[in-house]
Design a protein that fits this description.
The protein is mostly helical and about 60 residues long. It contains 2 helices and no strands. The chain starts with a helix and ends with a helix. It holds the Pfam family PIGBOS1.
C-alpha cells in the first residue's frame, strides 16, 4: 500500500468520524444550549422546525 492511499484512507476515516459525531450529537447539544440560554434566545417562529406529532396512548392505558 502506498503512502498516498494510506493518507486517503486516514482522511476518509477522520471525515466520516467527525461527520458522524456532528450528526449524532448536534440535536442534544442544541437542546442543552436552549435550556441554558432560556426561552428568550429562541429563533423567530417561522424558522423553527415543526415538532413531531403527539401520539396518544392506547385506549387500554387511558382507562387504567
Amino acid at each position: 500500500m502506498s503512502n498516498q492511499s494510506k493518507f486517503i484512507t486516514i482522511g476518509l476515516v477522520l471525515a466520516l468520524g467527525i461527520g458522524n459525531a456532528y450528526y449524532s450529537f448536534n440535536p442534544s447539544l442544541r437542546e442543552l444550549k436552549e435550556q441554558r440560554d432560556g426561552p428568550s434566545a429562541r429563533k423567530a417562529p417561522g424558522t423553527q422546525r415543526p415538532s413531531a406529532p403527539q401520539v396518544e396512548p392506547d385506549r387500554q392505558q387511558k382507562s387504567s
